[in-house]
């Protein structure tokens, strides 16, 4: 079994407090609430949803950049949810992240050479500074930059080049899993395709597993194998990417798809348009029953009362919506 990531009942709650001197806990923002999924080696698993749905918090919790409130995060067969800093070190190396904004993720006071050699020396991947330098140059070339770029500073590069440097840094420690947090949304459209092609090339060559966080569904379809749609901290629909895009069941997934352009007019005809009305409800006071019911054109009486369980539509498709019980969905 080639499962490399197994997330079980993951929760991340942020307490809300009132008062200045004496703080009183008045509730929680349930940013990630009982999220479970598996990712296989060399797969690209996409987490999608509107901003505030919990996709980035899920990723940050999995990376242990923030501590989970509850649940299991199994990486390469080990539950890392309770490991301390020292125990986490080998996993920090195995899991890397490329952020949305390359400007914020590269230290402006360090040269590209320093940025690339630092993780190599820290994780003791090389034995000497010279070896670190040589490997850094090799990494720069891999991402399409040149050896003479080593002495330059981040501000001397374009957005696309900075993202290439961030990718080189992420790959420097030989990771197995790379989180891509909206990695192209801050870039010029003309550069986006180049960066995506680079990700696909490295996945092929290095056997990487990607967790891809995005709201760009056209891109998700293009690069992902599996997709999980999140709404107010929970996964509402999940499965193989073709299955979800060709046969979406959850009205929220349908609405997201309605909002994204698709190249195939046959699919366009089959697809019923659902236009989302109203904004995402506050994560502090989520609606009763199905969280989507205030915005759902198909809501039934029970939708307002009880949260729907996760139904298996097929082996490769799960959805949390009562519509599954109706025929002909
Ligand atoms: Fe709509 Fe009901 Fe399905 Fe929720 S469970 S998405 S309210 S039909």
Automatic annotation (TrEMBL):
It comes from the Bacteria. SMART domains: AAA. PROSITE patterns: ABC_TRANSPORTER_1, ABC_TRANSPORTER_2. GO terms for molecular function: ATP binding; ATP hydrolysis activity. It holds the Pfam family oligo_HPY. Gene3D superfamilies: P-loop containing nucleotide triphosphate hydrolases. InterPro entries: AAA+_ATPase, ABC_transp_ATP-bind, ABC_transporter-like_ATP-bd, ABC_transporter-like_CS, Oligopep_ABC_C, P-loop_NTPase. Keywords: ATP-binding, Nucleotide-binding, Transport. Residues 5-257 form the ABC transporter domain. One of its GO terms (biological process) is transmembrane transport. CDD domains: ABC_NikE_OppD_transporters (cd03257). Belongs to the ABC transporter superfamily. This is Peptide/nickel transport system ATP-binding protein.
């Amino acid at each position: 079994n080639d499962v490399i990531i197994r997330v079980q009942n993951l929760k991340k709650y942020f307490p809300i407090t009132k008062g200045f001197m004496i703080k009183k806990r008045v509730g929680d923002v349930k940013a990630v609430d009982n999220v479970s999924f598996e990712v296989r080696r060399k797969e690209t698993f996409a987490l999608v949803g509107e901003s505030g749905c919990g996709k980035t918090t899920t990723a940050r919790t999995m990376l242990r950049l923030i501590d989970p409130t509850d649940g299991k995060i199994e990486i390469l067969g080990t539950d890392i949810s309770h490991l301390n800093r020292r125990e986490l070190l080998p996993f920090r190396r195995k899991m890397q992240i490329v952020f949305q904004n390359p400007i914020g993720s590269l230290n402006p006071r360090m040269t590209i050479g320093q940025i690339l050699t630092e993780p190599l020396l820290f994780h003791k991947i090389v034995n000497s500074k010279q070896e670190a330098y040589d490997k850094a140059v090799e990494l720069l070339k891999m991402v399409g930059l040149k050896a003479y770029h080593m002495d330059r500073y981040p501000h001397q590069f374009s957005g696309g080049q900075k993202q290439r440097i961030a990718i080189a840094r992420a790959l420097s420690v030989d990771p197995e899993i790379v989180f891509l947090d909206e990695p192209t949304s801050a870039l010029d459209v003309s550069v986006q395709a180049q960066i995506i092609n680079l990700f696909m090339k490295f996945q092929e060559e290095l056997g990487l597993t990607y967790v891809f966080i995005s709201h760009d569904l056209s891109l998700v379809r293009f690069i992902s194998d599996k997709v999980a749609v999140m709404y107010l901290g929970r996964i509402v629909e999940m499965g193989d990417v073709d299955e979800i895009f060709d046969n979406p069941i959850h009205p929220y997934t349908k609405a997201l798809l309605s909002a994204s352009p698709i190249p195939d007019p046959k699919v366009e005809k089959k697809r019923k348009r659902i236009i989302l009305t109203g904004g995402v409800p506050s994560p502090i006071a989520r609606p009763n029953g199905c969280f989507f019911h205030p915005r759902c054109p198909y809501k039934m009486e029970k939708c307002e009362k009880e949260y729907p369980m996760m139904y298996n539509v097929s082996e490769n498709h799960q959805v949390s919506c009562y519509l599954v019980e109706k025929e002909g969905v």
